[in-house]
Amino acid sequence: MNFNKILPVFTLGYGISIFPLFLLMGPLISEIFLIFLILFFLFSTIKEKKNYLTNKFIIFFGLFYISTLFSTLLNFYNFDYAKAGILYFRIPLFSFAIWFVLDKYNLFNKKIVYFYTIFFLSIVFDSLFQFYNGQNLIGYEIISNRISSFFKDELILGGFLTRLIPIFLLHLVMTNIINEKKINIYFTVIISLTCLIVYLSGERASFFLLILFFTLIFFAIKYLRKFIILISVISIFLSLIIQYVKNPEDLNPANRMFSKTYAQIIGKGAESHEKYKKKLFNKVYLFSHDHHGHYSLASKMILDYPIFGTGVKGFRYLCRNKIYILENSDGCSTHPHNTYIQIFSSNGIVGLVLIIIAFFYLSKEIIRIRKKINLEENFNKFEVSRIILLSTIFVNIWPLIPSGNFFNNWLSMMYFYPIGYYLYFKHIDEKKIN
């Protein structure tokens, strides 16, 4: 085979499949890969005269980028703050590049399954080692009483795994390892162990989103219900027995997941804040008094910048301004900690309308394909894969939960990564119709 044809397959094709490893290795490697992938995509589509950028999705993402760019330039604080908004176009293009490469090379094979198997098992083992020994295999210690594995001082382990489990499940379906007649117990245990690590990480939002994802899959895909039930049973069993093996009180995930969450919502221990941060209905905070402060501060900015927003990093720039600042500098942060509130405050009403449209589109598509699957007599792995991807994207933009910085490079890549896969499967479906 021609070396010039093999090289893109292994560097870019398989690179897409193992992209999560690049994210784990650091922002520089993932950013370099993203740029080369986009350049390859643009060069190849021009050379081959293929139209991947003439559809409703490019219009949608184009409008979102224009709103991001306009709000950023309109509220120009300094170049360091502005460059995130100016260069954001590369993130949606990342999705289209993934679609193009998947369409060109069709890289769904057991080699990728083996990679994810080793990848997940490595993280699971390292995380458990850190949980019981206080540091992981390469010496990274527990941070703030929470495990972080190879992420060192970044507490994003749970979010990372929550967004990767669906991609692993997608590959298991596409390689026929899992279907309506077969439940592979080996991979069921691997996914269950990974779910356990999400729980042990103490990331409450990620844990909830993982439950939401499996709930969607359970109701949307009849063929995978036994598989989901088995994962749930094994995960719950593991989470219950782990405290009897060793139960370090300061690392007890149940306390953080449930007891601390309840205490934060009712404001226990935060009584001193009540004189200047009013509870919702005078009874509860929105998730916690800290999150409540973020949302209160963001709402003030939204009232002043409702149409075009404050720009991508406007919240962090303006939050200490005396006209917005709450008592004791409360509520100020790098972002408002909710995707919808962040987009509304940064991009204005146009950005908010666009993400709401995306949310309802995903909901409608999940319902539509669910009906289609129920009407089919045979297991259709392409339709099942579409539901998995739609559910993944749906969970990523679920509105009623605290979230990370939407415009953060790492999180943006994780959000748009499954979108590229979805565009590919939608393209496959449209080719069948035509």
List keywords for this structure.
434 residues; mainly alpha; 68% helix; 0% strand
* SS element count, helices: 17
> What do the pLDDT scores average to?
88
| Biggest sheet character | none
**Low-confidence residue ranges:** none
What is the element string, with H for helices and E for strands?
HHHHHHHHHHHHHHHHH
Structural class: mainly alpha
Distance between the termini: 32 Å
Share in β-strands: under 5%
- Rg estimate, integer Å: 22 Å
* Helix-residue proportion: 55-70%
3D shape: globular
Can you count the beta strands?
0
Question: Mind explaining what this structure looks like?
Answer:
There is one protein chain. The chain is an all-alpha fold and 434 residues long. It has 17 helices and no strands. It has helices at residues 3-17, 19-25, 27-48, 56-74, 79-86, 90-105, 110-133, 157-174, 185-200, 204-220, 225-245, 253-266, 289-304, 314-318, 339-375, 381-396, 409-433. The mean pLDDT is 88.
Quick summary of this structure?
By secondary structure, the chain is mainly α. The chain has helices at residues 3-17, 19-25, 27-48, 56-74, 79-86, 90-105, 110-133, 157-174, 185-200, 204-220, 225-245, 253-266, 289-304, 314-318, 339-375, 381-396, 409-433. It contains 17 helices and no strands.
